Each structure stands twice: as structure tokens, then as C-alpha cells.
């Protein structure tokens, strides 16, 4: 299915942005401007250690400190997972984007030029 460019209306000049990016030579100045968003790895090590310390303190009768550490671990894990989800959404949006070689604009097929 061909998509027409919202700028010029030419469908034959529209390609997927990720294909266009991969076709660019390594030394191209455009390579950095059309680069995919950075991926973010989930590192749950710190929240896991804090949660283990919190569980230890709850068991060791320092319940307030233990509960605070468990709460902190939950908040940090939530923040980490939100960052990973945000990076995944940005990557999925980049993979859906189309590029018009005539107008040099990027657009999502369902919205229009960006």
C-alpha cells in the first residue's frame, strides 16, 4: 500500500524512514538527523537490592525503615519501567514513520507531516 506525501502528494517518493536510514552511507550527514531514538535497557538491579534490604529490615523489627525502603524500591522500579515503555513507544513511532524524498519531511501515515 503506497502512501502519498501530505506535502507534495507524490506517492512514488515516499519510503519508510527506517529503510531510508539504513540505505544512507555511514559518512552521511543525514544519518544522525534520521537516527532512531535511543533504546533503554531495564535495569532493575538497584530496586531489587533496595527491596531485599527493606525486606530484611521488616523481618529484623525495623519495620518503618523496611517499609520505607520497600516503598522506595517500588517507586524506583515504576520509574524505570516508565522510562523503558517511553523508549519503546518512541522506537515504535520511529519505525512507523514515512519519509518523502521530494519534500524531505517525515510523517506518520495516520497523521501527516511532523
The share of residues in helices is 40-55%
Give the spatial strand order of the biggest sheet: 1-2-3-4
Separation of termini? 21 Å
Class of secondary structure makeup: alpha+beta
Count of β-strands: 4
Number of helices: 4
**N-to-C series of helices and strands:** EHHHHEEE
Rg over alpha carbons: 23 Å
User: What's the story with the biggest beta sheet?
Assistant: 4 strands, antiparallel
What characteristic shape results from the CA principal axes? elongated
**Integer average pLDDT:** 86
Strand residue percentage: 5-15%
Explain this structure.
With 114 residues, the chain is an alpha+beta fold. The chain is 53% helix and 11% strand. The chain is built from four helices and four strands. Strands 1-2-3-4 form a four-stranded antiparallel sheet. A hairpin with a 4-residue loop joins strand 2 (98-100) and strand 3. Helix 3 packs antiparallel against helix 4. The longest helix is centred in the last third of the chain and has 34 residues, at 63-96. It is elongated. The chain starts with 13 loop residues before the first strand and ends with a strand.
Give the key terms:
single chain; about 110 residues; alpha+beta; 4 helices; 4 strands; about 55% helix
